[in-house]
Amino acid sequence: MLLLSLSLLLAGCAAGKKWQYLPATKAEERSIYVIAHGWHAGIALPVEELGEELGFVKEFLRPGRYYEFGWGEAEFYQADKVTPAIFLKAVFWRNPSVMHVFSMPVPPAEQFSGADLVELKLSQTGLKHLKDSLRASFKLAPAQRPYPLKRGQQGEYRFFKAEGDYLITHTCNTWTAKMLASGGVPMDTVFTLRSAGVMRQVKDARKEYLRLRPQGAETGNERRALPSSLQLAPLAKEGGDWLRLLPIPLVHGEGG
């Protein structure tokens, strides 16, 4: 009964949220992508939308068409091999955090084929707020330069020092929910600890957006079924290893 009541309470927290910064016309819509990697969810933007807020990441990565942003516990996120000590420290202590940026040469649905992925539409205002929040997650030097850390062998990913501490009550997915909420997406930013919670809310938000979507001037080409990129990708099969039992991010490779 207690668990049922708690579940209803958490569901209600998200249900009370409403879309903010809705675009006035379809021409103002801008795409972002929310991608689940096991128990971690990240946010991807097209390269042309990085702007002056996030364009600095291109200096540290291979050229890409899309860039995914994630946040997580510093030692665990960057570890080549997760030991029990690293795992327990990440779970039970307050720890420093890092940003993780991944450069994709192809669209997210192709890069992470079969992953649980949702494309959302934001207004230009909403996207600006999201990019400001993403930038604010990087720890920057007085000259507004980031602190680069570990990188992939081919420059496909890079870690950077981040703002904020990682806690079991403030996970990578709590961060993702907060980033999306800053862009106007209706998200619970307190109780979202797992990627499943992120993706459930994102899918609900997408359904609500399609109901509220602006009905501005359309061309003949726009009067067609939603492209496959707007459709929900199949749910990724989750592994059963012990590292997936808690909401701590794992570094994903090029194939997801």
Q: What proportion of the residues is helical, as a percent range?
A: 25-40%
Shape descriptor reads globular
Structural class: alpha+beta
**What's the rounded overall pLDDT mean?**
82
Major sheet characteristics: 7 strands, antiparallel
Count of separate DSSP helical elements: 8
* Spatial separation of the terminal alpha carbons: 38 Å
- Low-confidence stretches are 1-12, 217-248
The Cα radius of gyration reads 18 Å
Order of helices and strands: HEEHEHHEHEHEEHH
What topology, given as strand order, has the largest sheet? 5-1-2-3-4-7-6
Would you count the extended β strands for me?
Answer: 7
Strand fraction equals: 15-25%
Overview of this protein structure:
This protein is α+β, with helices and mostly antiparallel strands and about 260 residues long. It contains 8 helices and 7 strands; from the N terminus they run H-E-E-H-E-H-H-E-H-E-H-E-E-H-H. It has helices at about 1-15, 50-55, 75-80, 85-90, 110, 125-135, 170-180, 195-210; strands at about 30-35, 40-45, 65-75, 95-105, 115-120, 150, 155-165. Helix 6 packs antiparallel against helix 7 (about 170-180). It starts with a helix and ends in a 44-residue tail after the last helix. About 35% of the residues are buried.
